[in-house]
Amino acid sequence: MNEIEKFKQEDFLDEIFENEAKGLLSDIMSSTYLVSLLFSFDEEQGKKAIDYIVGIFNECYKLGHLKVATSSYEQMLCGYSIIFIHPHHQSAYLHKIHIGEQFRGRGLGTEMLQSLNESFGALGLICNHDRIKFYERNGFRCVSNLEVPDNDGFKLSKHMYTGLYMMSNSQNVDSCPVFFLNDADLRIIGGIS
User: Fold this and answer.
1) pTM of the prediction?
2) Which InterPro entries match (predicted)?
3) Were both Cys, which of 32, 56, 78, 189 would link to 49 (CB 3.0–4.6 Å)?
4) Statement: 3-190 belongs to CATH 3.40.30.10
5) pLDDT tens over the chain, length 193 residues
């Protein structure tokens, strides 16, 4: 990647991380089990929650545990992918491929996924059942149902990840580092001590 591309990608990080934080907050708020946690959320609490999640992404990015790939056209972000890399795993975790609404249906998501497939010899992801066939057409295989750590740190948050599947582009990978919000994160996001 040349310096011009890197500079452009860096320009989009704030937008990408905020978009992802809003998505995660929406996932939390749409979870039947967690809705009571954020029931009386006001605008200020929403901003604090988004800032907290953005902070997690920024910290992971600065430590080199999070990589971002972008697709842009004339200084406009068309799409992006977020990949988590753990220093003690041989595989990476594809957290998200997002294509802006006005750019969907042009094959950008497939193109980005194929590029990531080539860049990472061992790449895992989690998805809903309805996305399995798409990922299988793009070189992934279903490994197992997603299993959230079974400990006190995930009693609340495990419900966000119910019904998801683990997929991999490598026969050698049965697991990979996965980005989870844990109960401590949810308590901070919800303003609960």
Assistant:
1) 0.81
2) Acyl_CoA_acyltransferase, GNAT_dom
3) 189
4) no
5) 333 343 356 778 999 999 999 988 887 777 655 566 555 677 888 898 899 999 999 999 999 899 999 988 887 899 999 999 877 777 788 999 999 999 999 999 999 999 998 888 788 898 999 999 999 999 899 888 887 777 777 877 777 777 888 888 887 665 566 777 888 888 788 776 5
